[in-house]
Amino acid sequence: MELYQTQRDVYKLVEKLVSGNFRNELSFLKTLVKEIVRHEEFEIIGGRVWELNAQEKCYELRYQYGKLSKIPTNYKLAIEDYPVLSELYHKRTSLHQETDQLLKQKGIDIYSVAAVGDLIRIGQHYYFKYVLGFNAEHILQSFYETLNVISSVATVKLRDLAYNEIQKKIQRDINKASEIQRSLLPPHNVEFHDFDIFGVCIPDSEVGGDFFDYLRNKSDEEDRIGIVISDAASKGLPAAIQALFVSGAIRMAQSFSPKISSLLSRLNTLIFDTFPYERFVTLFYCELTLSSNRLVLYANAGHCAPIHFRYEDESFRFLKPTGGLLGLIREQSFSVENIRMKPNDVLILYTDGISEAMDQNGSIFGENRICEIVKKYKDESAKHIAYMIIEHVQKFNVNSKYNDDKTIVVVKRRSLDNLSD
Q1: At what angle are helices 141-184 and 25-38 packed, to 10 degrees?
Q2: Where are the alpha helices (DSSP H) in 68-140?
Q3: What pTM was computed for the model?
Q4: Please, which residues have CB within 8 angstroms of residue 52's CB and are 6 or more apart in sequence?
């Protein structure tokens, strides 16, 4: 075995053997045992994979390969009959004379074992999840030393496989959460009498903390529609969970609290009680009414100030917060303000992924750019204005290392000419 006389040579060989893709732990270990037996340099006659059955306190045969007579499938070795199995916790490899009568009948006289995988406690002793057994007419000392390398490399590979399986499961869960989150978002475009409404949410990853919704209270005698946009301050799955909770909670709260101030106060308390260790949530809620002057009632819980574009004089008004961040303290009150939307006026609701989008130099997109786009496309539909803002933000943000969820809702009151079309 001059070719593999150093541990480094052996390490490279074993690493090459385990470099493929495997379905699971057993498929990897089967391949490893087969390749080791096949390598003539090792002079090994047969190899086996034994898996620990903690409940029955034994090792069960999972795989065998070589020139020996076949051992019965799922043959078991009681750990009390093999003290060497508990000793592997301290030295990982061992060389012994076979004592099991059936295995001796199958031609196994001397065997060497290597422990691989996770440790499992049974009583006062620790056992490895898997044991690889090898036998030969004469097991060379060099191969016995090689087993240490095999044990080490195989255990690392098993941990990688386990980690990859966990990652796959997490990804499946994330994909399912993303599917649920997308299903809860409303249709992009909604028409409410002479109001043209368009919203879009673009998560930075599979799931995000942004959301928007359109709410109608059918029991309300006065015809109105509520619009909510929200951003959870945390990231990833925690933010997505908060977003899903807020989405359901505000629908529930709306049915019990027709007043905007009461609705947000109840929602604030729910978030505070439900997410004691999570960060806060920002939220803007408004109601479009069918009053003759098209009054828009709103409350802003620490959210980015929506922008009201007044068509007749091309001026802008920012709808600043009327209360604190949701979930920061348990008891909060929120005041309600209003604006009037005249024909062709535009209201822009957005999250900080829009206004605070950064370019590669760290400069932010800012509200002024939003205002410029709205003014440029003031005669277009709500959908067109929304897409133009998103397009400009995406181009601005394309080379940045920092990204965030991007959500925007555009409300435009159409003119009488547009209504007749």
Answers
A1: 150
A2: 83-91, 101-105
A3: 0.62
A4: 58, 59, 120, 127, 128, 129, 130, 131
Q: Which two tokens stand for residue 267?
A: 């929602």
Pull the structure tokens for residue 340.
């009037």
Residue 72: count other Cβ atoms within 10 Å of its Cβ: 10
82-to-123, 185, 369 alpha-carbon distances in Å = 15, 61, 75
Question: Who contacts 383 (Cβ-Cβ below 8 Å, separation ≥6)?
Answer: 188, 189, 196, 198, 410
Residues 8, 87, 34, 137: is their CA dihedral positive or negative? positive
Mean pLDDT of residues grouped by 10 in the chain (421 residues)? Answer: 52 68 86 87 87 95 92 92 88 85 88 88 92 82 72 80 74 63 71 91 70 74 81 71 77 72 87 76 91 89 95 95 89 93 96 90 92 96 94 88 86 76 47
User: CB-based burial of residue 148 (10 Å sphere; 0-12 exposed, 13-18 middle, 19+ buried)?
Assistant: middle
